[in-house]
Design goal:
Layout lengths: L2 H8 L17 H20 L4 H20 L6 H24 L3 H43 L3
Helix pairs in contact: 2-5, 3-4, 3-5, 4-5
Length: 150
């Protein structure tokens, strides 16, 4: 009667897919890829005529999400780290704006909106950071193959 359950327990598990996130240690391929990614980011913001404070804010947010991926949860859960980092940063920005504007009515709407929007932005930024390190891994693999080491 319970033979199907036994079959499910005996099935080999597929290996989990590799998660790309900010590593704790960098090699030369990673440094070059991250530098290229930041160059593209700043070029796009320059093309859009973004003020320097916007460029610095966005680059700083990306850097903080990358650091959170490497440090929080020992690097084991980069998506959760990105979400937590984005929510925290946007919540702090929302609180600062609320106190700067001096209205408590805005405060009731600030927390849920900033937590939600910050989490989404943190997650999306984390996906981009993971994509940069995926490209870095591809570059590293191609260099090893080209040099004959892999």
């Amino acid at each position: 009667m319970f033979d199907q359950d036994d079959d499910i327990l005996r099935r080999p598990q597929r290996p989990s897919p590799k998660l790309y996130s900010a590593p704790r240690r960098f090699d030369l391929a990673t440094i070059f890829t991250v530098t290229l990614a930041y160059a593209i980011l700043f070029a796009l913001m320059s093309l859009l005529a973004a003020p320097p404070v916007v460029s610095i804010s966005i680059a700083g947010f990306v850097a903080m999400v990358a650091v959170a991926q490497a440090v929080l949860f020992d690097g084991a859960h980069p998506r959760a780290a990105s979400l937590a980092c984005g929510s925290s940063i946007f919540l702090l920005i929302g609180l600062a704006l609320t106190f700067w504007l001096g209205t408590s009515a805005v405060f009731n709407y600030t927390i849920p909106v900033m937590l939600t929007f910050g989490g989404v932005m943190g997650y999306l930024t984390g996906v981009l950071v993971g994509g940069v390190f995926l490209v870095s891994d591809i570059v590293r693999t191609r260099i090893k193959r080209w040099r004959g080491n892999g």
